[in-house]
Hints:
By secondary structure, the protein is mainly alpha-helical. Helix content is 67%, strand content 0%. It has one domain.
Amino acid sequence: MPSALEIISSVLGWTYFLCWSVSFYPQPLLNFRRRSTHGLAIDFPTLNVLGFGAYSITTLAFFYSPTIRSQYAFRHPASPEPTVRFNDVAFALHAFVLCVITYSQFFRWIWGFAVGARQRATLPTLLILWGSLGAMVGVVTVVGFAPGAGNDPRTWAWLDVIYALGYVKLACTVVKYCPQAYFNYKRKSTVGWSIGQILLDFSGGILSLLQLVIDSSMQGDWSGIAGNPVKLGLSNISVVFDVIFITQHYILYHGATNEDEEDKGWVGERSPLVGDRGDAEI
């Protein structure tokens, strides 16, 4: 029979899963209702696609891969069970699908939405995108071809590839919020940026952090938290930026109705990644 802490952990896990999962719906629904992506910095969905793609692979590996789980147990003997749960896997896959849908709304030929002429990815976003892909190729090459690497957890192992993917997710989370926060500041408005997703994201971040603490306490060793840096960092970073967005929406720019669609007053240097002129460019 599960203990009280195990029940609490399960309830927290599925509650944060629901909060975070539902948080991906307000923005694409808002875009659909307005038939426009104005107010949403394209950096956010761009990095979300990369980040949650990496996070999906990470959670799947920790939950299902015998190789990854055994290598994790070797490096964390005091708490050999990864703190990734099935709700983490379900959340990651669901989030990835919704992020792809939101990102696709920037392409007129798919949805027919109004897209700002300057809705292109910023330089930091491009650096994170291509730098992450390059770094992953490097890590996979080292693990796959270095003598003695791969299956030996005492050296470069496949677990390190999964950890690298996790840090890609963390990097995306750190960077993706910054352009949107600055974008809101330049426009002095949060019109077009859904506050509903932020409130749900904030709730999910707090609950996710609580579940991680409870799971580690049940194992009697707090290294379980250090062993899952992605989940820990994801919760803390999300909460900090959620507070910033809540402050912008309800205090700094409360009541603002500015819908000048990105271009007016937006002076950031932008660089296209792909796309034809007149279509969405990232």
